[in-house]
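#struct-pred

JT: dropping the chains for the assembly here, can someone run the whole complex?
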Amino acid sequence: MIVLLRQDLNQLFRIRRTGGKRTEQESTFKRLRPLLFAVIIGVVIIWAILTVVPLFGWSRIALILLDNLDIGATLFNFILIISLLGSIMVSATTVGNSQRMEYLLTMPLTMRTVFLEKTIVVILNNAVLFLGIGIPVFIGLSIASYAPLAGFSVLIFSVLILSLVTIGVSFGGLLGLFFSRLLAGRRTLKQVGWFLGSSLAIIATAVYYYTFYTSDGAGVFEWVFELARSFGLSSRFSPGYPVSTLSLGILIGVSPNPVDALVGLFFIAFGLLLAYVNSYVSELAHYSGWLASGSKRTSAKDVRKTHTSWNPQPIPGMKFDQTVSVSIWYNISTIRREGRVLAQYLMGPIRFVIFLVLPFVAVGEYAMGLTPYFILAAVVPFAVSYGVYFAGYETVYEGRNLMTLQLAATNMADYVKGKVISAIPFVLITSIAISILLFFVGPVILPYLLGVPIACVFICLAAGAIAANAAAIGGDFRAERSVLRQRGAAVQMPIRGWSMLRAQLVPYVVGYVGIYSMVGVGILVTTLYGAAIGLVAAYAILGLFGLVCYSLYNHYSHSAGIKLAQIEASKYL
Amino acid sequence: MIESLGLTKMFSEFTAVKDLSFKVATGEIYGLLGPNGSGKSTTMRMLLGILKPTEGTARVLGHDIKTDIVAAKRVMGYVPEEPILPERLTGWEYVNYVSDVWRMPRGPEREEEIEELLTLLDIRDASDDLIETYSKGMSRKISLVAALIHGPKVLILDEVQAGIDPRGAATIKEILNGLRKKGATILMSTHVLEIAEQMCDRIGIINEGTMIAEGTMKELRLQAKGQSSLEEIFLSLTGGPDMQKIAEFLGGVPS
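RK: done, full complex below.
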């Protein structure tokens, strides 16, 4: 196990230079960059704490911490939930792609050991961000603290955060495996199941906003923590509570409560048990072939195969250029045939909606009247993410297939356009669903509802093309061969660093500016000159916005096409 | 010794391997031949414990693959048809990693053995490069080094010589012959019938998951009623090319 773990970490965070002549040598700075970045961030956090704490005085900080251990518990429980949400398909994906680990599975180890090691890698990968930020915070606070054993809080925090993430990842993985087991061998049912699951999640998000809208107007922060309390997230017996009381408690010099210590130990043991059960079930799933797709194969001698004339219509009623058409067909077919990938893609934006929109919501009761605008804000992550997934990620996951495309000397810009367009049906469905919700809760937006799905299509066109271009620049075209980056993995993105930022940031800015300009200008002009002129103004803005998005779509598809056509085979083979 | 005892593997409704029984004796090279999709790799994966047999079992040096797979894996070495290796390791690191997993004692002796195998297979110069830079043949060679380094008593080789240069192929042939003389049990699949004819003591031909012929070359010739080469025997048992269709495709050119 240790040997496997060491080599996996060596591969993930390779710092040592290789000696061979074939390998492209990276500069020492480039190899050490992630480590340097982490150290700099850590030093800045510690410096900031040591500068700020004396301004308020440690006693005051200690009092604030003591009074808010419940909130600490809620926050730590959120870490668990984030790990869980991000890991729901991770075990099923690992098992589903275990053919890539054949060299490991033939080693004299139980498969359980191999899957346990992979789970540990995912846990470490999930925990690295929380530890990377949390450890410097605790170091800073323990230096500032007067408590004699404050330094131990760093250790306690690290161990307990690891146990929280272990619970989240392992439980999430088990849920995914359980779902896979339920739908094993039933391909159509599986796809419908994934879709229903995704839809339910979307509806749950919408209901959440609706409940929020109809609640009695209490402060949003209070409302959020009340909700957390009602879910037991600040309960003494929740996993986050001992993390809060033990690590923060020791920091401020409060003797640890034996019950909290016992609960903490219980959750450490529970995490370890769940990780083991996860690896055991993964072994069972792989060895028994749970995840088999259930497709039928028959001998050519038994059944004479007949094919209908090849003329796929990926989007009914729409006619496209042949390259665009086949690209749409290829993209939708390959995504649709992998239920877990489709679910990842459809569910992905929900996380954005929750994590990006919620902080905006949490500004207090004054925000209540703005609810329709927050709901409107939720359409942008869907439009952007579907563009990024279908055009950006899927361009990267072409992998070795790029050779076929390059040899075909096809117009790669058209191929990229096909990928972008393949996201549009999904964007339309989601944006129409959100528009229906707006119809009920946002009368003020009613006149512009027709524009919402149209704007979403334009956002998706721009986002998809920008993401495809970013993928062509910074895509890891070997991502399929990495356990953490492969298709359907929720942990890591196939587009690297700055390119990923480029793929997401510009589309979000374009999307929010566009959609709020349309509605904002409409409402403003309506107030000044009447409803009819307001409506014309809003749709004029939509037209302008559409033109901008369409030109971005053309420009970046072309740019991505050129880059993809010129990518060296060594990048993807 | 390998004993396959009625191995059957079903994927949903498709039977990939059907009641397959054969034995590979100690010190024997056994060739498992068959058309694409006939069940060769599935059989090997069941023997390696990667796939669960739907029915039947197998024993590797007496270790049952269903109940004692770790012990069975400990004595086996495997080279897959398409080796997927950890790409961010160098060849040298990978072989050492495998040696560690097999708990081979570290030290100069082990390193000498690795160097020897790397040199023998002409891959020593590239051993400090990341595996992601390797060609298919090189990946297969490093995979073979990893399979041999822990001194397996049983070798399972899926198309081991495919994509390897002539010098490498000849080296592999000599190594396998040497290992056979030392008492290793070798199960190999290949589509190069010439290799099978030259190297294998016995051959099993499977088609659609079922063993359709088995024996030494002499026994196979008898079964195939007078066909002399393995290619002729193979084609007569599994079906040869459709010359009529080929001629049609080529526009009526007589073959």
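JT: nice. The CA atoms of residues 154 and 462 of chain A lie 45 Å apart. Chain A has 22 helices and no strands.
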